[in-house]
Specification:
With 120 residues, the protein is α/β, with parallel strands linked by helices. The protein has 3 helices and 6 strands, in the order βαβαββαββ.
């Protein structure tokens, strides 16, 4: 089963949503890593063999965080106002994507679609 590491910028309601859906989610805050830099967050995700889930658009920069070097990243483009729609798209994505497809991939999820990107 896929494990997720939720960055500190991920809304609590998203963490609850994922857990209610049956996903294994650990938060950066639960690990005592609040305030650490992006590289440390990504390093922890790698150490845990977890897919990083975040709202931080820095992780969508494939020059800075090339997807092929990591175990998977999901960037949520959302606000509290769009959370219900984004959660619906995220649910659909998680139903369609096979576990081995996360490795080396960047997923961008917004209120009406999701897309997958790999570094060439």
């Amino acid at each position: 089963m896929v494990k997720f590491l939720a960055d500190e910028c991920v809304f609590d309601l998203t963490v609850r949503f994922l857990r209610d859906e049956g996903w294994d989610v650990t938060t950066v805050t639960e690990l005592g890593l609040r305030g650490v830099n992006d590289a440390q967050v990504m390093g922890k995700a790698q150490e845990m063999k977890a897919v990083l889930i975040t709202r931080d658009m820095d992780f969508a920069d494939i020059r800075k965080f090339p997807p092929s070097a990591y175990g998977g990243v999901i960037v949520l483009k959302m606000s509290y106002r769009t959370s219900v729609q984004v959660h619906a798209v995220l649910r659909k994505m998680l139903q369609e994507v096979k576990e081995d497809e996360f490795v080396g991939a960047l997923f961008i999820v917004n209120h009406n679609k999701w897309r997958k990107r790999r570094r060439p």
